[in-house]
Amino acid sequence: MKVEVSLFGAFRDHEPGAQVVLELPEGARVAELRAALLDYAQAHWPAFRPGLLQRSAFASETTVLRDNELLPADGRMAVLPPVSGG
Amino acid sequence: MSGQSTHHCAVVDAAQGKLDPAAAIEFVSDPGFGGIDMFIGRIRNLNHGKVVTGISYDMFEPLALAGFRAIAEQVQAEFGPQLKLYIAHAKGRLAVGDLAVVIAAGTPHRDEAFRACRQVIEAVKHTSPIWKQEHYEDGDSIWSEGCSLCEPQNAEDTAAAHHGHEHH
Description:
The complex is a heterodimer. Chain A contains two helices and five strands. Chain A is of the alpha+beta class. Chain A has a single domain, classed as Beta-grasp domain (Ubiquitin-like (UB roll)). Chain A has a five-stranded mixed sheet with strand order 2-1-5-3-4, with helices on one face. In chain A, strand 3 and strand 4 form a beta hairpin. The N and C termini of chain A lie far apart (36 Å). Chain B is elongated. In chain B, 29% of the residues lie in helices and 35% in strands. Chain B starts with 6 loop residues before the first strand and ends in a 13-residue tail after the last helix. In chain B, a hairpin with a 4-residue loop joins strand 7 and strand 8. Chain B has a single domain, classed as Aldehyde Oxidoreductase, domain 3. Chain B has four helices and eight strands. In chain B, strands 1, 2, 3, 4, 5, 6, 7 and 8 form an eight-stranded mixed sheet that branches. The longest helix of chain B has 19 residues. At the A-B interface, loops of A face strand 4, helix 2, helix 3 and strand 7 of B.
């Protein structure tokens, strides 16, 4: 399945388009997306530090999804670095 | 209270308008409410000893709004029906002195108003998908460290601050 990952916060500095499209097996879980994004980041983002991704969560438009949860069928996800609102 | 909505959640794009504390007071007002508490978060001119000229707020808006509503519903479940809440957060580029967040709580008495307002702002700060990038006088810009949503006690917690990292 094609997974469109929207990027926010510090991730935007690495990818000005703020989106990465990754190919994952059908029925993949968040942990697999996390691993695929790490591979992509290490291959494409020279200044990337893996700690940012380790501290980041993944979410659909309606909910934060844990590593053992299935990706949504529409393949639309966001990666959320540590938050700093308010 | 007559079946009207008891919370209002909003995101305001800085390019379109400003947060409005008067609208927050109006929304949480009720003939039966004698107490209103409001928290206003405002851009200040100094952080970590550096002169700040502005902050850009990035936001995953659909999830942020869903989160604001979930926070309001959880606090209302805890405090009961005699409570109105207003939650509004800015996005985009703000200047020093601009308002970043407005939270208001209206209740019959002051104690619940203070406590509900505090609980909401802490939950918004710790769980909302919002990111601030500070801009400095020297031209540098830095994304704030922030609070990881991977740690379940942060992601699910709507209580007052209790964990270790530094807050601003």
